[in-house]
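User: I'm writing a tutorial on reading structure tokens. Could you give me a worked example: one chain, its sequence, then its tokens, then a sentence or two explaining what the tokens reveal?
Assistant: Sure. Here is the example chain.
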Amino acid sequence: MEQSCWQRCSIQSVLCTHQDILGKKGGLLQKIWYDDLSPKQVFSLAISTFQSNHEQIKADFLAN
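And here are its predicted structure tokens:
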């Protein structure tokens, strides 16, 4: 049975590609794992998402 990225990272102590969703008060709100994307792809996804939705992302960050 194949393990998830999170399980492999926990076992092997290696860095897996992920995205952290942060809040100003709460710190880490969510961690999204990307088994099938490279770090460069996740970085590009984060930039694209922020560019298209920065007002809502900022409001969510400040509210949490």
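What the tokens reveal: The helical segments are 5-12, 39-63. The chain has one domain: 5-63.
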